[in-house]
């Protein structure tokens, strides 16, 4: 990463300068860390990161969604600054995402927005307790299939036993996206990489528990007709094939909103964050209109 130019665009520096609250919530015996933006006590969004990622992947996106909403990004257990567990599973992570919403300042039913594995968590949440959600938006998530991170871990090509690098600089040089992605906003890439590591005995290591790749599966991933509204953002150059998308459309039902983000790789918030923000804002605005119409007298 030493050759990456990191001159930051104004929208990025403005977003990172936005006020942010942090906190922790106990969920089934584990402390779950979160970051939150926007007016507390408002309707809101829970942002759910992908495998081996963390809440700070959303630092530059969340403030742009938080003008009139409370936006919360959590670290799933086994990731970021949350506790580790003996075992991991999509259902447990879905419960964590719901559990942080109210303590973090969201009023009423939240919208879940999940990327990759986080989309799988969000889809399981729609199956488990969709009536408690205002909607779910998935970002380039395979839902039924394994995520790229899981595939690489299973093939032992990445995410093996925790490596400790002697210096922060060396760790930064080894930061890579899975799947590989050459396109990125340089300032975003640098920010995510710098906040993906922690100091440990002997040097620096990535902030995730590699045991999470052995997570439990979930029968809920194969469910149809989710119990809340669904939107799907597909990356044009992402991991979802046409056949996968066709299968998901059938299971999502006829009212699901499906949008493709042009010229985006799998990690959409890294290379096309503004397009992603516009997409999410548009879907939420349309859902707000639906709610207001539904609430009008006869």
Q: Spans of 5+ residues with little confidence (pLDDT < 50)?
A: 1-5
Class per helix and strand makeup: alpha/beta
Radius of gyration: 18 Å
Major beta sheet, strand line-up = 1-2-4-3-5-6-9-10
Q: The CATH topology, please?
A: Rossmann fold
Q: Name the shape in a single word.
A: globular
CATH architecture call: 3-Layer(aba) Sandwich
Number of domains: 1
Distance, first to last CA:
59 Å
Q: Can you tell me the CATH class?
A: Alpha Beta
Q: Helix share of residues? A: 25-40%
Largest sheet: 8 strands, mixed
Order of helices and strands: HEEEHEHEHEHHHEEEHEHH
Number of helices: 10
What value does the average pLDDT take? 92
The CATH fourth-level homologous superfamily: Alpha/Beta hydrolase fold, catalytic domain
**Total strand count, please?**
10
The portion of residues forming beta strands comes to: 15-25%
GO molecular function, one term: hydrolase activity
Organism: Rhodococcus opacus
InterPro entries: AB_hydrolase_1, AB_hydrolase_fold, AB_hydrolase_sf
Protein name: Hydrolase
Would you mind describing this structure in some detail?
The protein has an eight-stranded mixed β-sheet with strand order 1-2-4-3-5-6-9-10, with helices on both faces. A two-stranded antiparallel sheet has the order 7-8. The longest helix is centred in the C-terminal third of the chain and has 22 residues, at 273-294. It has helices at 10-16, 62-65, 90-101, 117-129, 148-154, 168-174, 186-194, 242-252, 268-271, 273-294, and strands at 21-27, 30-37, 44-48, 70-74, 111-115, 135-139, 197-200, 203-206, 230-237, 257-265. The protein is of the alpha/beta class and 298 residues long. It has ten helices and ten strands. It has one domain (10-293): Rossmann fold (3-Layer(aba) Sandwich). Mean pLDDT is 92; it is low at 1-5.
């Amino acid at each position: 990463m030493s050759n990456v130019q990191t001159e930051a665009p104004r929208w990025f520096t403005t977003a990172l300068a936005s006020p942010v609250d942090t906190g922790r919530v106990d969920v089934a015996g584990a402390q779950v860390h979160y970051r939150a933006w926007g007016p507390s006590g408002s309707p809101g969004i829970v942002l759910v990161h992908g495998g081996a990622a963390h809440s700070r992947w959303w630092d530059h996106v969340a403030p742009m969604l938080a003008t009139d909403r409370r936006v919360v990004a959590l670290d799933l257990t086994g990731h970021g600054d949350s506790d580790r567990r003996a075992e991991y599973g999509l259902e447990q992570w879905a419960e964590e995402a719901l559990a942080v919403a109210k303590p973090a300042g969201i009023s009423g039913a939240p919208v879940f927005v999940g990327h990759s594995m986080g989309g799988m968590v969000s889809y399981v949440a729609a199956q488990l307790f969709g009536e408690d959600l205002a909607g779910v938006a998935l970002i380039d998530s395979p839902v039924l299939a394994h995520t790229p991170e899981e595939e690489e871990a299973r093939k032992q090509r990445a995410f093996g036993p925790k490596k400790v690098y002697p210096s922060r600089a060396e760790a930064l040089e080894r930061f890579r996206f899975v799947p590989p992605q050459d396109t990125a906003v340089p300032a975003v890439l640098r920010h995510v990489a710098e906040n993906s590591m922690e100091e440990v005995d002997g040097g620096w290591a990535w902030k995730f528990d590699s045991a999470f790749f052995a997570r439990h599966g979930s029968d809920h991933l194969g469910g149809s007709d989710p119990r809340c509204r669904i939107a799907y953002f597909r990356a044009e150059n992402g991991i979802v094939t046409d056949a996968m998308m066709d299968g998901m459309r059938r299971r999502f039902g006829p009212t699901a909103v499906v949008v493709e983000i042009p010229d985006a790789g799998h990690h959409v918030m890294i290379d096309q964050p503004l397009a992603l923000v516009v997409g999410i804002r548009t879907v939420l605005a349309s859902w707000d209109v639906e709610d207001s119409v539904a609430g009008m007298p006869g």
